[in-house]
Amino acid sequence: MPAEPTSLPETLRWSGDERGRLFLLDQTLLPNEVREVEMTDLAQLCDAIRRLVVRGAPALGVAGAYGLVLALRDVRADDADDFLGRAREAAATLAHARPTAVNLPGALARMIRRAEREATSRRTPDDLLRALLDEARTLEAEERAAGERMGALGAELLADGMGVITHCNAGALCTVGLGTALAPLYVAHRQSKRLRVFADETRPLFQGSRLTAWELARAGLDVTLITDNMAGSVLARGWAHAVLVGADRIARNGDVANKIGTYPLAVLAARHGVPFYVVAPLSTFDPRCARGADIPIEEREPREVTHPGGVSVAPQGLRVFNPAFDVTPAELVRAIVTEAGVIERPDERSVGAALRAAGRLS
Fold this sequence. Notes:
Blueprint: E1 12-15, E2 21-25, E3 36-39, H1 42-50, H2 57-72, H3 80-95, H4 103-119, H5 125-155, E4 163-166, H6 183-190, E5 196-200, H7 207-218, E6 222-226, H8 231-236, E7 242-245, E8 249-250, E9 256-259, H9 262-271, E10 276-279, H10 303-306, E11 325-328, E12 335-338, E13 341-344, H11 348-357
Parallel strand pairs: 4-5, 4-7, 5-6, 7-10, 10-12
Antiparallel strand pairs: 1-2, 2-3, 8-9, 9-11, 12-13
């Protein structure tokens, strides 16, 4: 049966009014256990973001927006100015939880701008808190709509019978809807297109095997799990006709930061003449970053490499290099699929035009 959004996992949800509760699907437990956890305060949410309980650029943005409401729901501010000061402090703390995905600081900056606008009307702290919840819900709705639109545009690039390679997780688990790079697969599946998906396991944290393969199989798609170093063999055999990946930050010239291992996959795709597509909402573009070299790359704990799944696979005391992301040059990207349209052969001119049309670049 075609996959419907209702069959996809719910990454996060806010329950109640402005003093309600935030729940996250704990992605560190998947695929063995499906458990929702309640966030009770700012420190717990920051820890959850760092530990990848919630992850994926769009989901981090929405989680951060609701997280700001969570951080302020029990604050007893003297007036609007006091509330704004506390809001800025909480936003700064959240924004530093993970440095690479631009959606998190972008969403928080948007929330602060909304609070500042409301404060000019002599609103009370309670009024400002309600406005922040409204903004977070608006952001969530926009991301859901963006996923549907990217899915529709991306599905036009996929023909019946195609094989597709994915990397990391860019589906429902990284967003609040269909996803980014997996959204075209879900829409194509609705259209009864028969696709064969090859999911890179995505070491060292196995987001491809634990998350992507899990949600694709759950939605009824044909998915084959491969280790990262098998992608070349799949391409060489002619089994894959496109590569679809998401993004955590896209520079103004079209360079793309995504999960580590994306860059070599792009090189392999180019070597075999297979189109390499990035699917990402406009909220993932960073107009302040001129090129990929300007994007901060998070480095994570060595234990993620030396102890996958808690099992030691390396000598003790070994030096480890563990960047969470790499940068794929724009020249290797056939197109970037956004909710506003498809940017063919992205470069500074075409990306700039898209951002200006969206009002994100002057």
